[in-house]
Amino acid sequence: MTEAGADILECNFSCPHMAGDGLGSDVGQNPELVAKYTKAVRKGTHLPILAKMTPNIGNMEIPAYAAVEAGATGIAAINTIKSIMNINLKTYCSGPDVDGKSSVGGYSGKAVKPIALRFIHDMKTYDKLSNTPISGMGGIETWRDAAEFIALGCENLQITTAVMQYGYRIIDDLIDGMKLYLSSQGFHEIKELVGKGLPKIVPADKLDRDSIFYPKFHREKCIGCGRCYISCFDGGHQAIIVEKDTGKPILQANKCVGCHLCVSVCPVSAILPGKRMQIG
Ligand SMILES: Cc1cc2nc3c(=O)[nH]c(=O)nc-3n(C[C@H](O)[C@H](O)[C@H](O)COP(=O)(O)O)c2cc1C
After folding, report:
1. Ligand 1, residues 160, 164, 165: which to mutate, most atoms within 8 A of Cβ?
2. 15 assigned to active site
3. If you count Cβ atoms within 10 Å of the first and of the last residue's Cβ in the chain, which end, N or C, has fewer?
C-alpha cells in the first residue's frame, strides 16, 4: 500500500463479522494483539498509521494506547456495534435473512452517534492519549454531527452509512453548513473548534446537585395536548396539574425535581429550561 501511494494506513482491528479467533473485533478487544499487529504494520511503512477501534468493549482507551505505544500515529473510532437488528415475528429470523438464518452483526448510522461520542471523549480525556489524533466516525450525517465530533477533539472525520444512504452529495451540504456555523460562532478556522466541548464533560459527582433547574411553561405556545402532564405523572414526580378549561399545565414547584421530562416531550417547544434555584 505504501508503494501504491497511500497517504495513511488504517488498520481495521474491529470488524464484527470475522469468523475465527484473533481476527476482526477480537483484535480490538485485546491490547496485546493490537500491539502485535500495529508493530508489524509499523515495520513495513513510514506512513501514518491509524488503529481502528471496536466499540464492543468497555474501555477503548486501553487498546488505543497499546496501538500508540506500538507505533500507531492516531486512532480511528468507532467501528460498528455488535447487534441483532430485529426478529421477524413470522419467520423468527433476524435481519438480514440469509436463506432463513442470520448472525450477530455490526450496527452503524445515526443511532450509534452518542456511543461514538462517548468513546471519543474517553480517549481524548485519557492523559496518555490527549495528544493523539483521532479520526472520528459513527453516525455522522450532517454538519451538526460533524461539528460535535470535532468539538470532542477529532481532527479528521469519516462517514460510511450516511453516504451509503444518501450519496456523496451530503458532503457538499455538510461543508456549506459547517462554514456557516463556524462564521456564526466567530471562528476563522475549523481548528478553533477542536476539543471545545471536552472541558464541559465532568464526572457525575462534579455536577451541581444543590440546585433545581425548573422548566418554564410558555402558555401562549401551549396547545394543551397533555403530554407533559402524562409524562410527569406516569414517569416523573407528579409535579404538573392541568388547568380545567384549557388543558394547559401548571407546575407544582414543590414536587418538581428539574428532570426536564416535560421539556423533552413537549411537541411544540412550549416548555423550555427556566430558572436554576438553589435548594437546601
Ligand atoms: C456496510 C458496511 C461495511 C463496512 N465495512 C467496513 C470495513 O470493511 N472496514 C472497516 O474498518 N469498517 C467498515 N465499516 C464500518 C464503518 O467504516 C464505520 O466505522 C461504522 O459504520 C460507523 O460509521 P457510520 O455510522 O458513518 O457508518 C462498515 C460499515 C458498514 C455499514
Report:
1. 160
2. yes
3. C
Indicate which residue's Cα is closest to atom 18 of ligand 1: 79
Instruction: Please tell me the CATH code under which domain 208-278 is placed.
Output: 3.30.70.20
Atom number in ligand 1 closest to CA 12 = 11
Q: Which CATH number is associated with domain 9-200?
A: 3.20.20.70
Domain ranges of the chain: 9-200, 208-278
CA of 52 relative to ligand 1 center, distance in Å: 11
pLDDT, one tens digit per residue, over 182-224 is: 999 999 999 999 999 999 999 999 999 899 999 999 999 999 9
